[in-house]
Write a structure and sequence with these properties.
- This protein is of the alpha/beta class and 217 residues long.
- It has one domain: Ribonuclease Z/Hydroxyacylglutathione hydrolase-like (Metallo-beta-lactamase, Chain A), CATH 3.60.15.10.
- 24% of the residues lie in helices and 26% in strands.
- The protein contains 5 helices and 12 strands.
- The strands form 2 sheets. The chain has a 6-stranded mixed beta sheet with strand order 1-2-3-4-5-6.
- Strand 4, helix 2 and strand 5 form a beta-alpha-beta unit.
- 38% of the residues are buried.
Length: 217
């Protein structure tokens, strides 16, 4: 297996490449248009076929140019938000690559259609845990849905599950469920109402609101 982290040190964005080198198939999580030359070089070096482009979330003002660039990778783009040319997976869907697979976890809240992707003992959760630390919006699009996604979907996973962020500036890129459950400043030790009050104090979101869509199991 191959696992690579691509980190933009200036902006803090993180992308992940997973590959079954025996079967020569790969997936990429949260790539950005600026990553394409490096990604293509990594794929060519190992003679890898890209099976899926996985996007945990999208910000409206960046959606069109980024999507056009990522489509050039030649693999299906998987995301929660409906758009021509994308694959919207069902909750729990298994996306195969080689002899491996990634499981889809619906985790709305940071944006209304957020997905997380589970591979082995790792969850790629994008901006799910950022709350007030996302550089592209000051607060979650749907705070109530975010509470449910984090406390009911992510924090119920085994303590040792590794959580990989889509962005980091001054924090670690990876943590564990146990760490986040115990010490996250917006979730640990707070009731749902206390959390919602703290998020409300952050100000208005920078994204437009839409009804939250939950996937049918």
């Amino acid at each position: 297996m191959l696992f690579r982290i691509l980190h933009d040190e200036r902006g803090g964005d993180l992308s992940y490449l997973l590959a079954d080198t025996g079967a020569r198939e790969a997936v990429v999580v949260d790539p950005h248009s600026r990553d394409l030359p490096v990604l293509q070089a990594l794929l060519n070096e190992r003679d890898l076929r890209l099976r899926w482009v996985l996007r945990t979330h999208q910000h409206d003002h960046l959606q069109a140019p980024e999507f056009s660039s990522l489509a050039r990778l030649g693999a299906p783009v998987v995301q929660g938000e409906a758009r021509d040319g994308v694959f919207q997976p069902a909750e729990g869907a298994l996306l195969p690559f080689g002899h491996e697979f990634v499981r889809v976890l619906a985790t709305p809240g940071h944006t209304v259609d957020c997905l997380s992707f589970v591979w082995r003992d790792r969850v790629f959760c994008g901006g799910l845990l950022a709350v007030d630390a996302c550089p592209r919006q000051p607060r979650p699009a749907d705070p109530a849905a975010l509470w449910d996604s984090v406390t009911q979907r992510v924090f119920t996973l085994p303590d040792e599950t590794l959580l990989f962020a889509g962005h980091e500036k001054r924090a670690r890129a990876v943590s564990t469920v146990l760490e986040q459950r115990r010490w996250h400043p917006f979730f640990a030790g707070l009731t749902r109402d206390e959390y919602l009050a703290r998020v409300a104090a952050l100000g208005s979101p920078a994204v437009r609101h839409r009804p939250v869509k939950l996937f049918n199991p």
